[in-house]
């Protein structure tokens, strides 16, 4: 990821990118392609199909879907009036829009569906390492199945994905209950937090009324003693939620996916019920979550569809990319096979023509259209990482014979130009 650099010595007035929104430069894009192509490969093995939804939705979708009381909607959403007509929002996450599309296109009539997406999301957070205002998520959403083995399968999918990329991430698992068991728990939690609010930070106090579950997530050191002793929802689950959670664990055990039960794991979005999970990595520092998700069995209904259970997750590509960089996993960029070096004007034109012919045969090649000194052209060939160089001039064009120079071994072998493609292919 790159942040603007430049000395401002030029005449024009420089306009920088927006704070918290990053460029991914060509040298890094190979890694992004890898994250995305491995996702497509692994997700297909599990029957997930890609969906593409707009980056802009009605603001009301997120207010109702993600929750009015969440920071994401309440503080961080980019909302604007579209020419004074409608209140629109840049999507802060992908689930609400995916559910909207699922309902709008009547996809529920076909039975259970598994969809995935990738793309930019927007949250007006305070930018820091691993936290940006435009970031990219790869997410999966599975609709129509309430049974816990789906949860286990989806979590295993994500574990498989990380393993394929050579990334180690720790799975944290919790159940946040449902409409049966949560209300009574929340009342007790609130009472406990109010009784102990003297020992809590301002943020926590602020959240007791608005979003008491989120208080459990506070990372401030001085709040920890109170939070550690807070009542635990995991110990208060109703029977159906308890059984569901036990079966998720049994499924994960059967699949050999290791997890740690984290009774204080809560998520920053309101739609979750039962299963909640996160994958974290030590390579990330304070923003340690590389992926998060959970069940949202009421969301489709809340957004105007038929009762349809669901579960999903999203992973942050910027964060995953940081981990990949740390573990030294470099996705190789495609290098040109051949670099044409021109000795004169006739050779320059022949290079242009031959390069085009080779590219039509699927062979990457380059030349320096500036021509100039051959030594400089050879330098350029090395800079772009070409495998071979071919010098072309009037003589080569006249005889149809040239020399193929291996830029690693420096060996030169004669080659007929008509056979060049065959020689360098593969
Ligand atoms: P989330 O936990 O808000 O969940 O985001 C998922 C992941 O996106 C995080 O674990 C993190 O890697 C990345 N992420 C979030 N905010 C930022 C940011 N400001 N900068 C960089 N990366 C960030 C969701 O968004 C849910 N929609 C996930 C889900 C799908 N639940 C069910 N289905």
Explain this structure.
There is one protein chain. The chain has 426 residues and is of the alpha+beta class. It has helices spanning 26-45, 59-67, 71-74, 95-104, 148-165, 182-195, 202-210, 212-215, 224-228, 239-255, 299-302, 317-326, 345-360, 374-383, 394-399, 420-424; strands at 49-50, 56-58, 79-82, 86-90, 113-122, 134-143, 170-175, 260-261, 273-280, 289-295, 310-316, 338-342, 365-367, 388-392, 401-406, 412-416. The strands form 3 sheets. It has an 8-stranded mixed β-sheet. Strands 13-12-14-15-16 form a 5-stranded mixed β-sheet, with helices on both faces. A 3-stranded antiparallel β-sheet has the order 2-4-3. Strand 3 and strand 4 (86-90) form a beta hairpin. Helix 5 runs parallel beside helix 10 (239-255). The longest helix has 20 residues, at 26-45. Bound molecules: histidyl-adenosine monophosphate. Histidyl-adenosine monophosphate binds next to strand 6, strand 10, strand 11 and helix 12.
Distance between the termini: 33 Å
Query: What is the overall pLDDT average?
Result: 95
Number of helices: 16
Radius of gyration: 28 Å
Low-pLDDT residue intervals, each spanning 5 or more residues: none
SS strand fraction: 15-25%
The distinct ligands, each listed once, are: histidyl-adenosine monophosphate
Helix content: 25-40%
DSSP, total strands = 16
- CATH hierarchy class name of the largest domain: Alpha Beta
Any guess at the CATH architecture of the largest domain? 2-Layer Sandwich
Dominant shape:
elongated
